[in-house]
Amino acid sequence: MIVIVIGSGAREHALCRLINKSKLCEKIFCLPGNYGISKIAECINLSSSEQIIKKCKEINPDLVVIGPEKFLDEGLADKLRKESINVFGPNKEAAKLESSKDYMKLFCNEFKIPTAYSKTFDNFNDSINFLENKKGKIVVKYDGLAAGKGVFVCENIEDARLACRKIFVDKIFSDQNKIIIEEYIEGKELSYFVLVDNKSYEVIGSAQDYKRIGDNDTGPNTGGMGTLSPAPILDSELENKIITKIVEPTVKGIHKKSLVFNGVIFLGIIVDNLTSEPKLLEYNTRFGDPEIQSISMRLKSDFLVTAHSVSTNKLSYANIKFYDNQKAICLVLATKGYPNSYPKGTVIRNLEKFKNDESFFIFHAATVKENNQITTNGGRVLSLVAINEDYEGCRNKVYKIADEIDWKEKYFRLDIGLID
């Protein structure tokens, strides 16, 4: 098969690696890709939907896999399907489960999916008035896409007012603003991934994500600073609750609304400390980054076969298997200053020294090669992933290599994989 992967991050590097392992893979293109991806795929520097559609029509691939939410929100999957191209990724309407928090809440209410109580506001004054009588922690969420940075977990009402001001007055995300103000739920979180076509669904793994920039979950939210897979808190009892109370009503809703999904839905779940029950925090309509980096290293079965079966509504024939008793940890290396301002063009001097294999891999997110040097062009730059029979073995490997990478401007959390 000829496959095109859309995107340029570590998520897309992980997907390209899985596709490249398949015996059915003839050639991979990645649009636009990055330096790391260029080692296993032909990267073509195209980044607009119009350019991508034109190139896909030229190549006529057997499958297109869309990585980033931005393209799903733009309706790229719909446009490619109109050209009779198989696509792994939902249409624009289905992608609203991620791109609009308000749409997600209405969906949950309609299909009785447990989630935090919330109210939606489209102006600053009403949101501030609503906060007047609130006490303690509260969550403010920007309604649209924000690269993982649109959720404000506020310690008090003053912080919540500030978050509302940033969105409505300072317009840090866009001019078209709407917010969700949501009750804060104390508990442990996990990410749960489910493949969906128009007939069925299959689970494809879980992970625990570390969103905050600082150790012990301090500082602002990021796109993710590391993951563990499988999620340590996920036992058979909890998984059964997630499937019956969240996954199955979600898939039922997708099918009842005739949403063209044909992709993966990512359930952000919290287990309420008060009730021990899982509740849905958010949907994402694509693989998470950095979750897929850790999940992908544990996957034993042929991902290309699975992804193609999803795109052609034959998911029930897929046979998803993971390596027995293998854990994985992903450690993200970012440029100092992220998620705020940070320098670009910094040099990583010894990256070629570290060899990738089936138990360790360095996924690239924001690297280029210029003048025979590997340089950075983004905030989150590398994802180091190790698999082992226990998390301690994974931790030892990723932190050893992180320390050895010669990059003056690197930053990483020190507590990824420390289990409570």
Mean pLDDT: 96
Overall 3D geometry?
globular
From the alpha-carbon coordinates, what is the Rg to the nearest angstrom?
21 Å
Beta-strand percentage range: 25-35%
> Which architecture of the largest domain would the CATH scheme give at its second level?
2-Layer Sandwich
Structural class: alpha+beta
Largest beta-sheet details: 9 strands, antiparallel
How many structural units, i.e. domains? 4
Count up the helices: 12
CATH homologous superfamily placement of the largest domain: ATP-grasp fold, B domain
- N-end to C-end Cα span: 44 Å
Q: What is the CATH topology descriptor of the largest domain?
A: D-amino Acid Aminotransferase, Chain A, domain 1
Helix content: 25-40%
Summarize the structure.
It is built from twelve helices and 23 strands. By secondary structure, the protein is an alpha+beta fold.
Which characteristics define this entry?
single chain; 420 residues; alpha+beta; Rossmann fold; Dna Ligase, domain 1; D-amino Acid Aminotransferase, Chain A, domain 1; 4 domains; nine-stranded antiparallel β-sheet; 12 helices; 23 strands; 30% helix
Give an account of the 3D structure.
This protein has 4 domains: 2-91, Rossmann fold, CATH 3.40.50.20; 117-183, ATP-grasp fold, A domain (Dna Ligase, domain 1, 2-Layer Sandwich); 186-317, ATP-grasp fold, B domain (D-amino Acid Aminotransferase, Chain A, domain 1); 327-411, Phosphoribosylglycinamide synthetase, C-terminal domain (Glycinamide Ribonucleotide Synthetase, Chain A, domain 4), CATH 3.90.600. 46% of the residues are buried. By secondary structure, the chain is an alpha+beta fold. The model has no long low-confidence stretch (mean pLDDT 96). Helices cover 30% and strands 29% of the residues. The chain is built from 12 helices and 23 strands. The termini are far apart. Strands 10, 11, 14, 15, 16, 17, 19, 22 and 23 form a 9-stranded antiparallel β-sheet that branches. Strands 3-2-1-4-5 form a 5-stranded parallel β-sheet, with helices on both faces. The chain has a 4-stranded antiparallel β-sheet with strand order 6-9-7-8, sandwiched between helices.
